[in-house]
C-alpha cells in the first residue's frame, strides 16, 4: 500500500508502521516487552478532515453514547448525512440547537465552518503541511485545542511523530510503565518521547493499548 499522505510519511503504509515499530522496540527497553507481546498493530487512519473536526467538537466533555446521539442528530440535518463546511456555515443555528448542540459548541462549529468557507483554512492543503503548521492553523479555531489537533494528526492524517502530551491515557500508561510516583508533566513526557522520535505516534498507540484508556 502506498503512503496515504503525499510528501509526508503516513502510518497508513504498513512499511512505515513497521519502521516505527522496530525503532521504538530497539530504543526503549521499557516499551519493548509490550511491543513484542502485541506485535505490529493494524492501523488505518480514517475520516474526512472537516467531518472529523466537527465530530471532535461535538464530542467534547460528553460520554460516548451522548456524543454519538448528538452527532447522529446533526448529520440528519444534512442531505445524506454529509457534514460539509458550506452547509454548516449556512444552516440556521436554531436547527443545530434543536439537535442538541450547546450554545458554546454552536459558536465553535460556526467558527470552524466560516474559516473553511472563507479560505482561512484550506483542508485540501493539509497533505502538504508539516505537523507544526497544522497545529498552528487549527489551534486558532475556537474550541479546538492541542489535544484535539494531536488526535486529528494521528487518527485522521496518520502522521507518525505525534506525542499527545495532554492525554490522560498516555500519562497514566507512562506513569505505570516507567514506575513514576506521579503523572508525568509535559516536559517529562517530551524527554521520554525523544527516544521514540521520529515515530512517537507508534509509541503512543502502544501506550494506549497498554492501559486501554484514551480520554481528553
Outline the secondary-structure elements.
Layout: H1 14-27, H2 32-38, H3 49-59, H4 64-75, H5 85-90, H6 93-98, H7 103-117, H8 131-139, H9 146-155, H10 168-177, H11 186-193, H12 200-211
Q: Which descriptors apply to this entry?
A:
216 residues, single chain, Endonuclease Iii, domain 2, mainly alpha, Endonuclease III, domain 1
Walkthrough of the structure:
The longest helix has 15 residues, at 103-117. The two termini are 32 Å apart. The protein contains twelve helices and no strands. It has two domains: 14-45 and 161-211, Endonuclease Iii, domain 2 (Orthogonal Bundle), CATH 1.10.1670; 49-155, Endonuclease III, domain 1 (Orthogonal Bundle), CATH 1.10.340. Helix content is 56%, strand content 0%. It has helices at 14-27, 32-38, 49-59, 64-75, 85-90, 93-98, 103-117, 131-139, 146-155, 168-177, 186-193, 200-211. The protein is mainly α and 216 residues long. Helix 1 (14-27) crosses helix 12 (200-211), helix 3 runs antiparallel to helix 7 and helix 10 (168-177) crosses helix 12.
Amino acid at each position: 500500500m502506498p503512503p496515504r499522505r503525499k510528501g509526508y510519511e503516513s502510518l497508513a503504509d504498513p512499511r512505515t508502521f513497521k519502521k516505527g515499530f522496530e525503532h521504538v522496540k530497539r530504543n526503549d527497553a521499557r516499551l519493548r516487552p509490550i511491543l513484542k507481546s502485541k506485535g505490529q498493530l493494524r492501523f488505518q487512519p480514517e475520516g474526512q478532515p472537516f467531518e472529523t473536526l466537527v465530530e471532535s467538537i461535538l464530542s467534547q466533555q460528553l460520554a460516548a453514547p451522548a456524543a454519538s446521539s448528538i452527532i447522529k442528530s446533526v448529520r440528519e440535518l444534512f442531505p445524506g448525512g454529509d457534514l460539509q463546511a458550506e452547509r454548516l456555515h449556512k444552516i440556521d443555528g436554531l436547527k443545530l440547537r434543536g439537535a442538541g448542540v450547546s450554545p458554546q459548541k454552536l459558536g465553535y462549529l460556526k467558527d470552524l465552518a466560516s474559516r473553511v468557507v472563507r479560505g482561512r483554512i484550506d483542508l485540501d492543503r493539509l497533505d502538504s503541511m508539516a505537523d507544526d503548521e497544522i497545529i498552528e492553523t487549527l489551534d486558532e479555531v475556537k474550541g479546538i485545542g492541542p489535544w484535539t489537533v494531536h488526535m486529528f494528526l494521528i487518527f485522521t492524517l496518520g502522521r507518525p511523530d505525534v506525542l499527545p502530551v495532554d492525554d490522560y491515557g498516555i500519562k497514566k500508561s507512562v506513569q505505570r510503565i516507567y514506575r513514576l510516583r506521579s503523572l508525568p508533566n509535559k516536559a517529562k513526557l517530551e524527554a521520554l518521547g525523544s527516544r521514540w522520535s521520529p515515530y512517537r505516534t507508534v509509541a503512543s498507540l502502544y501506550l494506549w493499548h497498554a492501559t486501554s484508556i484514551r480520554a481528553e
